[in-house]
C-alpha cells in the first residue's frame, strides 16, 4: 500500500461564479417556467443544465439550502466530514435501528447547491455492468442497460490530472504494474488487483476515481452550474427556497396534473414552523422532483401522493393512493474498523491538531495544494461472499460485489470519538447489496419537521452475515505479512471482538451509514401495479410530474451512487428533450 499518497483522479469541471442566481423571491423575474426543478443535487443540477441548453426553454431550479460558493468545508477535499451537523446539512436522525441494537444514527444529506455532491466523500463509481443490465430488466426499458448508458456516462466524466500531482500511470491503465500494492499481490486469490473498477467489472482492489477537479471538490454545483451555464438567461436558480408542497392544477385525460410548486424562502430551522407566506410558481410543461430519497418522498406525501392510510391519519387528502411512495428505502451499512499503526505519516497529525489544520487550510488557500487536496480514501476493494445461508442472492450477478472495503490513512469514524493522540489506519466495511428494506413516513404536516427515516440497517440476518464476513476478511488482510511492522494492533472495540457473539455486538454497537439512501419512489415497468414512476421517471397515473434522483432507483446499486445518479440525470434529461422536441 502507498499510504502517504492518495491517488485521485479528478472529474468534471472547476469552480463556478454566478450570474442568474437569486436569493429572494422578489428578485425572481418570472412566475411561470417550462420546467420547475426541485432540489439542486446530483439529479437536479444535471436536469437544470441540460434542459436549459435550448435557449427557448425556461428553467427554474429551486434549492432549499444556500449557495455552495465560498463554503470552505465543501471546497477543500479533505474537509467535508465536518459538514454533517451544520446548516449545510438537513441534520436528520433515523428511528432506532434494531440491527444497531436500538441506536438511532445521524443521517446527513447535503443542503446547499450541489446537494449531497457538495458534502460527500467524492468516491466515483459507475456500478457494474450487471447492475445496469438489471435496471433495464426491472424497468422493462433497455435504455438503462450498460451498453446503452455508455454515452451518458461519458457525458458526465472528465478526467484531469491527480489532485496531489502524483503520477497515476498504472492506477487505471493496464500498462504498468508497480503500483498495485503489496497486500493485493500477497492475497491475490481473495483480492485480485483491479486496474479500473469503472470498467463494468468491479471485483478486486484498486485505486479510487474521485470527483475532484485538480485541487477542489467537483460537484453538481461546480460542474453543471458553472459560470458558463449560469449566464444563460433562460436558467434561473433560486436558493433558500424550501419547497413545501406541489399542487394539483387540474386533470389531463383523467389523470390529476401537478404543475404548481409551493415554496417559502423564510429561514426556518429543521423542526421549526413558519407562518410566512408561501409562494407558488407554475410549470407549463413539467415539475421535476430531485429532492433526493428523503426530500422527494416528503414532498409527495405532503401533496397527497402516497399511501392513503398514512396520509389520512395526518388529515392529508389523498389525490393518488400509491403505497410504494416511501417504501423500500435501502441504504449501505458501514463499519469503521480501526487499527493502531507504527507511522507518523497519517492524517491524524492534522485532524488531531487544530493548529496544523488551520495551517494546512492556509496553505490550501494560498496555493490550492498541500495535504488537504486529497480525500481520506486511499483504496477501494469490492468482494463477494461465496454463498449466503440466509437467503437468495441480492446482487445483480456473479461479478457484482456484496460488500466493499475502503482503506483510509488515519482515524475515520462517525461512531467512535477521535482520540487526542495516536496514529491509525481505518479499513471500512460497507454492505453494498443489502437485503433489508426500510421506509420514509410522515409524522407531521409541518414541512419543516423531518419524516421518520427508518433505513432498517442490518435488519436481516443476511445483511449481518455479510458484515461479519467483511470484517473477517479485513482482519485477514490486516494480519498479512505485508503489514508486519506497520499495523500494531486493532483498536479497542475491534480487538475485543474475538468470539462470534462479540463480533456481532461490535458490529451492532459501531455500525452507521455510508450515506447512500435510495429506492423510495422506484421506477417499474409501464403499467405495473407497483412502483412510483415509469422507466422515464414520469410519476404513474399523474400528469406533469417527473422524479429524477436517488429515489427512483429500483434497487440500490452495489457502488457509490453519485455517478449513477448523474447518469440518471443525463438520460432523464435526454428523454425529456425527446418528449418535448427540445
Ligand atoms: C456525507 C456523505 C458522503 C457521501 N459520499 C459519497 C461518495 O463518496 N461517493 C458517492 O458516490 N456518493 C456519496 N454520497 C451519496 C451521494 O452524494 C448521493 O447519493 C447523491 O448526491 C444523491 O443525489 P440526489 O440528487 O438524489 O440527492 P442530493 O444530491 O442529496 O440532492 C437533493 C437536493 O434537494 C434539496 N432539497 C431537498 N428537499 C428539498 C425541499 N423540500 N425544497 C427544496 N430543495 C430540497 C437538497 O437540499 C439537495 O440539495 C455521500 C453522501 C453524503 C451525505
Ligand atoms: C442537529 O441536530 C442535533 C440533534 O438533533 C441538534 O442538537 C443540533 O443543534 C442540530 N444542528 C443544527 C445546525 O441544526
Ligand atoms: C509516470 O510514470 C510512468 C511509469 O513510471 C513513466 O513512464 C512516465 O514517464 C511518468 N510520467 C510522468 C509525467 O512523470
Ligand atoms: C398557477 O397555476 C394555478 C392553477 O392553474 C393558477 O391558479 C395560478 O394563478 C397560477 N399562478 C401563476 C403565478 O401563474
Ligand atoms: C418493494 O420492492 C419490491 C421489489 O424489489 C416490490 O415487489 C414491492 O412491491 C415493493 N414494495 C412496495 C410497497 O412498493
Ligand atoms: C514518530 O515520532 C516519534 C516522536 O518524534 C518518534 O519517537 C518515533 O520514532 C516516530 N515513529 C516512526 C515510526 O517514525
Ligand atoms: C500541532 O501543530 C503545530 C503546528 O504545526 C505544531 O507546532 C505542534 O507541535 C503540533 N502539536 C502536536 C501535539 O503535535
Ligand atoms: C481560507 O479561506 C476562507 C475563504 O476565503 C476563509 O474563510 C478562511 O478563514 C481561510 N482560512 C485560513 C486558515 O486561511
Ligand atoms: C394506475 O392506475 C391503473 C388504472 O387505474 C391501476 O391499475 C394501477 O394500479 C395504478 N398504478 C399505481 C402505481 O397506482
Automatic annotation (TrEMBL):
Homology family: Belongs to the GMC oxidoreductase family.
Binding residues annotated for FAD, in chain numbering: 243, 561-562
Active site: 516 (proton donor), 560 (proton acceptor)
Organism: Mycena sanguinolenta
Keyword Glycoprotein appears in the UniProt entry: yes
Name under which the protein is recorded: Choline dehydrogenase, mitochondrial
4Fe-4S among keywords: no
One of the Pfam families matching this protein, by short name: GMC_oxred_N
Amino acid at each position: 500500500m502507498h499510504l502517504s499518497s492518495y491517488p485521485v483522479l479528478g472529474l468534471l469541471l472547476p469552480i463556478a461564479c454566478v450570474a442568474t442566481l437569486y436569493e429572494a423571491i422578489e428578485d425572481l423575474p418570472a412566475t411561470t417556467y417550462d420546467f420547475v426543478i426541485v432540489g439542486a443535487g446530483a439529479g437536479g443540477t444535471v436536469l437544470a443544465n441540460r434542459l436549459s441548453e435550448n435557449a427557448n426553454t425556461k428553467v427554474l431550479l429551486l434549492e432549499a439550502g444556500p449557495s455552495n460558493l465560498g463554503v470552505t468545508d465543501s471546497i477543500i477535499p479533505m474537509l467535508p466530514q465536518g459538514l454533517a451537523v451544520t446548516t449545510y446539512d438537513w441534520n436528520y436522525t433515523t428511528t432506532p435501528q434494531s440491527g444497531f441494537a436500538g441506536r438511532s444514527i445521524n443521517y446527513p444529506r447535503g443542503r446547499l447547491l450541489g446537494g449531497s455532491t457538495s458534502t460527500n466523500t467524492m468516491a466515483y463509481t459507475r456500478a457494474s455492468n450487471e447492475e445496469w443490465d438489471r435496471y433495464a430488466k426491472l424497468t422493462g426499458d433497455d435504455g438503462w442497460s450498460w451498453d446503452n448508458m455508455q454515452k451518458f456516462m461519458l457525458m458526465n466524466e472528465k478526467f484531469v490530472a491527480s489532485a496531489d500531482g502524483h503520477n497515476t500511470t498504472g492506477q487505471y491503465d493496464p500498462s504498468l504494474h508497480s503500483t498495485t500494492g503489496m497486500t493485493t499481490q500477497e492475497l491475490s486469490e481473495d483480492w485480485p488487483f483491479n486496474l479500473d473498477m469503472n470498467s463494468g467489472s468491479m471485483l478486486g482492489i484498486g485505486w479510487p476515481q474521485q470527483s475532484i477537479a485538480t485541487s477542489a471538490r467537483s460537484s453538481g454545483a461546480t460542474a453543471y452550474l458553472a459560470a458558463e451555464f449560469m449566464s444563460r438567461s433562460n436558467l434561473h436558480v433560486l436558493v433558500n427556497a424550501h419547497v413545501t408542497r406541489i399542487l394539483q392544477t387540474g386533470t389531463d385525460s383523467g389523470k390529476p396534473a401537478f404543475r404548481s410548486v409551493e415554496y417559502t424562502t423564510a429561514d426556518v430551522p429543521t423542526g421549526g414552523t413558519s407562518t410566512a407566506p408561501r409562494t407558488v410558481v407554475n410549470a407549463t410543461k413539467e415539475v421535476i422532483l430531485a429532492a433526493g430519497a428523503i426530500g422527494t418522498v416528503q414532498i409527495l406525501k405532503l401533496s397527497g401522493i402516497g399511501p392513503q392510510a398514512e396520509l389520512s391519519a395526518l388529515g392529508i387528502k389523498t389525490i393518488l393512493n400509491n403505497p410504494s411512495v416511501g417504501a423500500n428505502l435501502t441504504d449501505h451499512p458501514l463499519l469503521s474498523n480501526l487499527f493502531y499503526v507504527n507511522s507518523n505519516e497519517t492524517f491524524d497529525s492534522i485532524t488531531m491538531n487544530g493548529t496544523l489544520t488551520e495551517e494546512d487550510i492556509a496553505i490550501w488557500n494560498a496555493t490550492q495544494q498541500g495535504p488537504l487536496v486529497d480525500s481520506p480514501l486511499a483504496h477501494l476493494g469490492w468482494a463477494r461472499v461465496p454463498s449466503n445461508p440466509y437467503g437468495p442472492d441480492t446482487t445483480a450477478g456473479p461479478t457484482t460485489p456484496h460488500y466493499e472495503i475502503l482503506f483510509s490513512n488515519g482515524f475515520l469514524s462517525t461512531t467512535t470519538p477521535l482520540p487526542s493522540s495516536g496514529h491509525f489506519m481505518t479499513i471500512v466495511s460497507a454492505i453494498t447489496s443489502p437485503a433489508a428494506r426500510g421506509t420514509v413516513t410522515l409524522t407531521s404536516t409541518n414541512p419543516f419537521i423531518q419524516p421518520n427515516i427508518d433505513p432498517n440497517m442490518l435488519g436481516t440476518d443476511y445483511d449481518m452475515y455479510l458484515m461479519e464476513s467483511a470484517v473477517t476478511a479485513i482482519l485477514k488482510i490486516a494480519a498479512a505479512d505485508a503489514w508486519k511492522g506497520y499495523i500494531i494492533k486493532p483498536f479497542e472495540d475491534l480487538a475485543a471482538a474475538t468470539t462470534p457473539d462479540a463480533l456481532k455486538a461490535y458490529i451492532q454497537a459501531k455500525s452507521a451509514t455510508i450515506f447512500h439512501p435510495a429506492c423510495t419512489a422506484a421506477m417499474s415497468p409501464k403499467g405495473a401495479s407497483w412502483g412510483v414512476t415509469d422507466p422515464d421517471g414520469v410519476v404513474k397515473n399523474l400528469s406533469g410530474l417527473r422524479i429524477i434522483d436517488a429515489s427512483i432507483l429500483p434497487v440500490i446499486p452495489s457502488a457509490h451512487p453519485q455517478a449513477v445518479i448523474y447518469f440518471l440525470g443525463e438520460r432523464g434529461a435526454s428523454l425529456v428533450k425527446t418528449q418535448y422536441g427540445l
